[in-house]
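This part of the workshop introduces the protein records we will be handling. As an example, a complete record with its sequence and its structure tokens follows.
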Amino acid sequence: MCRHLAHLGPTRPLAALVTDPPHSLYRQSWTPTLNADGFGIGWYPPGNGAGPVRYRRAVPIWTDANLPGLAAVLRSGAVLAAVRSATPGTSHDEAAAAPFALGRWLFSHNGAVPRWEDLPADTREPLTPAELLTLEARSDSALLWAMAGRRLTAGRPPGEALADVVRRTAAARPEARLNLLLTDGGTIAATRHGDTLWYRRADETEVTVASAPVPDEPGWHEVPDHSLLLATRATTEIEPL
């Protein structure tokens, strides 16, 4: 089980979200489950509308000696980060570590799709053979991202794009775990289908969506299974998938 989070709020050091909190993704890389197959952080630099920028590694997050210093000085008000536990049969290079990116979008997948290489063609539609051959990584997450990215490029809203990917994939693989997380720096879309998902509003300008809540921190709400969450800095909506 991977772990991931997306955050929209005031500009702050990446360390305040990823490495410093007592129940941070950094700590979740070894407890309560082991997520040692890579990690990634994507963020939108403040001020000029640039980004997103990604920092991804194929090593356990606790072994990266550069990360603490970088996370202490890099700042953003929009972040998506993940630690990875690889699905069997997937690649282990850093290209397989979330977040994946397309234009302004950042994407992560928490879960697994059994026999993802053999998904029926009508599930993967409208991906072409050429698109399948140019996947960023050999993994279920990269395939799901290609499916979602194709829909976003066609102009479909983010929640609709994720929901359609989940429905199609779950119809072919009912045992699949499909918690998807997507942001463009101003909005968050997320699905809960099989694994846990929580969100917290610190105030009217800040929201965090994460695999697990922070113990002893008030204000966390569990997203029901088989649900779609849509959030901005000021609003949160949840609807059935």
